[in-house]
Design goal:
The strands form three sheets. Strands 1, 4, 6, 7 and 8 form a five-stranded mixed β-sheet that branches. Helix 2 packs across helix 3 and helix 9 crosses helix 11. The chain contains 14 helices and ten strands. The chain folds into two domains: about 220 residues, Orthogonal Bundle (Endonuclease III, domain 1); about 120 residues, Nucleoside Triphosphate Pyrophosphohydrolase, CATH 3.90.79.10. With about 375 residues, the protein is an alpha+beta fold. This is Adenine DNA glycosylase. Belongs to the Nth/MutY family. It holds the Pfam family HhH-GPD. Its EC number is 3.2.2.31.
């Protein structure tokens, strides 16, 4: 059994050095810090999962402009929420955020249940670390976090062996995170831990020369900062293929269909997808009037966390559909509706825009 890593210094010493560093170099003007309400912190924490701060800021500000309160988010249609999430990826985060907001309104009178980590983790999409960040930053109560930045910093500081995704390794890191978390100034401490990992103890090229823990850091002493945290064992990503039908009607609009609520791109709007050419052509013959199929465009790859999707766009034209189809919409490129779009679909639609403009009067 792996030996538990012993803390390298007293909690008070660690906290003092970290907070001193934070006062000088930390991020104090992020949009979710003023005001630092439970709702704003919650939305920011969900957006920041798997996404960098610089990317999140614009999305957060647009999201808050549309949904300044939790109640307004709960009342919104899912399409509105997914539209504002388009480009951030990991769309289950948005669906869970929306679902959780409705639960908070229905079961907690519109107030985030900050009584404990457990009351927050009962909501969809909120894990233990996210719950800790919400409580610490909005309520100022002691709660422990262990996001990717904290895992990296503590793994290096204590040279914790093993991939942090393994339960035994994660338990060791939680124990260390709990050991160092203070009773006071917890909002600053929590932000400091995230900032420290994001801006100084970075994944690549950490600035060890400016680190307040350089003398104690075991990874630095061993010249092994590159090795910690230990990487997840790699395995080849499987590859899938799909044909995406880019179908335009006589008005230059493109046909989109909404994906099922669960699964890949759940709830988002996408181009019709097919595994084989024969299936695509059968669909055109069955559902459209006067269809014509163009040549395939170059294939491109979209990578998910668990597989790679090779996408071949297939442009086609028709006069119109020969029936009313539920769960679909003609997408007007000039006056686009506010829909949540899968990233490669958004890119393909933007690629079509110049061609649509050429069809309009007054455009060369």
């Amino acid at each position: 059994m792996a030996q538990e890593p012993a803390p390298i210094m007293a909690p008070a010493t660690f906290q003092q050095r970290l907070l001193h560093w934070f006062e000088q170099y930390g991020r104090h003007d992020l949009p979710w810090q003023q005001p630092r309400t439970a709702y704003r912190v919650w939305v920011s924490e969900i957006m920041l999962q798997q996404t960098q701060v610089t990317t999140v800021i614009g999305y957060f500000e647009r999201f808050m402009a549309r949904f300044p309160t939790l109640e307004m988010l709960a009342k919104a249609d899912q399409d509105e929420v997914l539209h504002l999430w388009t480009g951030l990826g990991y769309y289950a985060r948005a669906r869970n955020l929306h679902r959780a907001a409705r639960i908070v309104v229905a079961q907690h009178d519109g107030e985030m249940p900050l009584e404990s980590v457990e009351t927050l983790t009962a909501l969809p999409g909120i894990g233990r670390s996210t719950a800790g960040a919400i409580i610490a930053q909005s309520a100022g109560r002691r709660a422990v976090i262990l996001d990717g930045n904290v895992k990296r910093s503590l793994s290096r500081l204590h040279a914790v062996e093993g991939w942090p995704g393994k339960p035994a390794v994660e338990r060791r890191l939680w124990a260390l995170a709990d050991y160092y978390t203070p009773q006071s100034r917890v909002a600053d401490y929590t932000q400091a831990m995230m900032d420290f990992g994001a801006t100084l103890c970075r994944r690549s090229q950490p600035e060890c020369g400016r680190c307040p823990f350089q003398q104690e850091c075991l990874a630095y002493a061993r010249h092994e900062t590159h090795r910690f945290p230990v990487s997840k064992p790699k395995k080849a990503l499987p590859v899938r293929q799909t044909l995406m039908l880019v179908l335009q009607d006589a008005r230059g609009r493109i046909w989109l269909e909404q994906r099922p609520p669960a699964g890949l791109w759940g709830g988002l709007w996408s181009l019709p997808q097919f595994e084989e050419e024969s299936q695509l052509w059968d669909w055109l013959l069955q559902h459209t009037i006067n269809p014509s199929l163009g040549s395939a465009e170059p294939m491109f790859t979209h990578t998910f966390s668990h597989f790679r999707l090779e996408i071949t766009p297939r442009p086609a034209e028709c006069d119109t559909l020969n029936e009313v189809r539920e769960g679909g919409v003609w997408y007007d490129l000039e006056r686009p509706p506010e829909l949540g779009l899968a990233a490669p679909v958004k890119a393909l639609l933007e690629r079509q825009l110049p061609f649509a403009l050429n069809l309009l009067p007054g455009h060369a």
